[in-house]
Every structure is written in C-alpha cells, then in structure tokens.
UniProtKB/TrEMBL annotation:
Positions of the UniProt region annotated as Disordered: 1-20
InterPro entries documented for this protein: ADH-like_C, ADH-like_N, ER, GroES-like_sf, NAD(P)-bd_dom_sf, Zinc_ADH-like
Domain of life: Eukaryota
Polar residues composition bias: residue spans: 1-10
Name under which the protein is recorded: Enoyl reductase (ER) domain-containing protein
Pfam families documented for this protein: ADH_N (PF08240), ADH_zinc_N (PF00107)
GO molecular-function terms, A-Z: oxidoreductase activity
Lineage: Eukaryota, Fungi, Dikarya, Ascomycota, Pezizomycotina
Protein species of origin: Penicillium cataractarum
Transmembrane segments: none
Ranges of residues in domain Enoyl reductase (ER): 21-347
Amino acid sequence: MSNAQVTTRQAFRRTDDYTPGTPKLKLVKEDLPLPLAPTSVLVKVHAVAINYRDANIANGGNPWPVLPNGILCNDAAGEIIAVGEKVKALAVGDRVGPIIDTEYISGREVGRSWLAADEDGVMADHIVFDEAVLCKLPVYLDWISASTIPCAGVTAWSALKGMSIGQTVLIQGTGGVSMFALKLARAAGLRVVLSSSSDKKLQQMREKFSNPPILTVNYTTTPDWHKEVLELTGGVGVDIVVENGGTGSLVKSMKCTRRGGIVSQVGYLSKQNPMDLAELVSTIIDRRIILRGINAGSKYDTEDFCAALSACQTPLDDIIDKVFPFEQAEEAVQYVWEGKQIGKVVLKL
Ligand SMILES: NC(=O)c1ccc[n+]([C@@H]2O[C@H](COP(=O)([O-])OP(=O)(O)OC[C@H]3O[C@@H](n4cnc5c(N)ncnc54)[C@H](OP(=O)(O)O)[C@@H]3O)[C@@H](O)[C@H]2O)c1
C-alpha cells in the first residue's frame, strides 16, 4: 500500500431528526477503515454533488430503507492517495468517483447496495472504496463538474440511450438530471422541449441555450401542458420524454409522445396519486409507448458516459447552479430541498 499520512476523516452524518427546521447533518471526525484491504483505495475528496435524493433522504422521505445516521450523498470526485497491495486498474493520482449502486457493475447483477442508503455515502473529506466500484473521471473536467457525473449524469445518459440526431426530447424541470439531459441532447443533436414551473427559469434557459433555440412550456400555468407539447411538435409528439413527475405526469407525458416513442421514467417529484394513472394502459396501447424505467446506471454505463463526455469535451460548468464550501453542507442540502437550483449544487472541499 502507498503510504498516505491520513488516518482520520471528517464526514457529515445524518441526524435522522426529521422535524422541520432542525439540523439534518452532523459533522463528525472518525477513523478511516485502515489498513486498506488489498483491493481498496483511499480517495481524497475534492467535490461532492448533491441530488434531490440526498435532500429527500435527509428529510426522511426516501421510499427505501437507509442506514441509521449514515453519511449522506452518492456523487463525489476525488484523487487516489493510497492503494491496497492488490489494486490493479487504478493508481495513486487517478481522478475517480464511485458508482452509486456498488453492486451494479455490468448491469446483470441481481443485488443492490446504494451509497448513502444501504451503505455510507461520500459527504466526507476522505473515502475508501474497492477499486471495482470506482470509475476514472474525464480529465478535461474540473472537480466540481466531474462530481456531478455518477448520479445525475449517468441517469440522464441512461434516459436518453438510443436517441439519434434530429429527434425531439421533452425534458421535465430544470433540476440536475434535467440539465444534464439538456446538455446531452444538445451534444447529440436533439431538439429540446423544456418544461418548468417557473417562467423566470424558462426565460433564463432560453437565453442561455439560444442557438439552436429550445422550446419551452410552463407545466404549472399550463395544466394541459401535454397539449402544448403536441402543438409544438406539429401534433406528432416528441420522440422521448425524460419523465420526472411520476404518477402525476406520466399519462400526460405519454399523450405527448409520438406513437412508438419512449418515456424514460426517472423521477417521482409530483404528488403520487394512483388515480392519475387511470388511463395508463389504454394510453400505452393507443400510442404504442415504450415505457422505460431508469435507475441511474451500471459501472459500464458510467464508463461509456465518461467516454462520450471526453470525446465531445462537453463543458458542464454552465449547469452548475451554486457551489457551497464543505462546511455549509446543511445549507446546501436545504437549498436543494427547496428546489431553488437550476442544475447542480456542489460542495467544494
Ligand atoms: N431513477 C433514477 O435513476 C434517478 C436518478 C436521479 C434522480 N432521480 C429522481 O429524478 C427526479 C429529479 O432529480 P434531480 O436530482 O434532478 O432533482 P432536482 O435537482 O432537485 O430537480 C428538481 C426539479 O424538478 C422539477 N420538478 C419538480 N416537480 C416536478 C413535477 N411535478 N414535474 C416535473 N418536474 C418537476 C423542478 O424544476 P422547475 O423548478 O424548473 O419546475 C425542480 O427544480 C427526482 O425525483 C429524483 O429522485 C432518479
């Protein structure tokens, strides 16, 4: 093992106090799991990206069980500072991030182990992982941008798989996954229809991504937004939807997707009322929709995505909404919980 001097770390662990207004995180100092196991590596973390999922877990809303007082967050970018004696694929100095489900390597595994839920997450200044669950991150990206790849980035990548130049995508909302989807759609030559609850955000996005222009629709002030999306596409519908609302918007999303098109179900941000799904089966059949469940991606997906980013040299700094210092993790999580961001919120260490 390479000789790193560090033996302890600082980490933010959840308080598991879900009372509104109380702290959701506690900064702790703790021993690192040393000596390193033969195939483990020690990573000095430079940036941690925050997702809706993290804010939801911190506030007790995760629909799946979580480790008591676990370390929050699953997205990190850092530099390897020590390796176990049998590590083969990685070396000191490599820039890496862990995948978010550490049992999802090729995509054919049957188990699952989610960071920040089944096991500790990454909101810490040092983390230790087996080399098998780490991916090399693109070298052209700074730490802040690179940290957004494993969850929001890979999810957007999985959601848009199979699209080809000239097709049209409906992207719902202006959060992290959506902004990544927007960047990928642009890189892939797709036409973008973007929805948001905020005219101000839509205006900002039209100005930021003006050439070629994006089409926009406000899903709050236009409750029948699917009809507007149909109009924007000459009555045909979009080729694919990055579906973020869940139960509340799924049927409408299908109604504005072309016959034979794809709806990638990513999120569950709306009020989840099963009554909203009354027309689900008839709409799927009528429009011959392919409904595709998205659950981030495997290690192989992450590697493919990093290769695509590196090939296109796609800048990601324009989808970073705000960078907080590590010490302000509590404020950063609350900011995401309130949905104030357009794109990504990141902690810098
Ligand atoms: N399946 C997966 O693999 C996967 C991976 C990552 C995230 N997710 C899920 O995907 C969703 C988005 O995650 P994120 O990290 O991008 O969240 P985020 O950064 O917090 O973004 C949330 C944004 O979505 C928009 N939104 C809110 N309610 C909506 C609704 N009812 N319909 C459409 N859009 C709505 C809002 O944008 P405006 O303010 O512009 O309206 C909001 O700012 C969450 O449900 C998350 O749990 C799933």
